[in-house]
Design a protein that fits this description.
The chain has about 140 residues and is an alpha+beta fold. The protein has a single domain, classed as Beta Barrel (Thrombin, subunit H). The chain contains two helices and six strands, in the order βββββαβα. It has a six-stranded antiparallel barrel. A hairpin with a 1-residue loop joins β1 and β2. The longest helix has 28 residues. It starts with 14 loop residues before the first strand and ends in an 8-residue tail after the last helix.
Amino acid sequence: MSENDGSNKRIHPRSALTLLVQYHFESLDEVVCEYAEDVSLGGMFIKTATPPAKGSVIFLQFSLSDGSKLVEGLAKVAWCLSPAEAEASDRVAGMGVQFIHFDEESKAVVEEIVQRLDAAEAEARAAEAATEPGSNVPG
């Protein structure tokens, strides 16, 4: 793994998801649309072959899959994984962004997304454990 991937510095656990996000940097005229691969209370990983430089501040927007709630705020590029680094490590090129300024409503929506994903993941693990051989053997 690259030292730039941020995996050792995470405060919040990540939850997998596929979510279309758009962001602006350098100019409000240029909007970039990419897919996020995971999210946490503190940030997300966005797949991209051309990330802004580490340390760049971006204005990030995304909404729930049903379109009901818009999340927007500022995020900082915490680390980048170039296409060459990604290929060498069998990973996906992109950037890890840290949320730095979201309004209270946007923070609440991110928290709701993470809680839903965590609950779904826990349910899937429980269902998988219940179907493993020997899981229904009386003690």
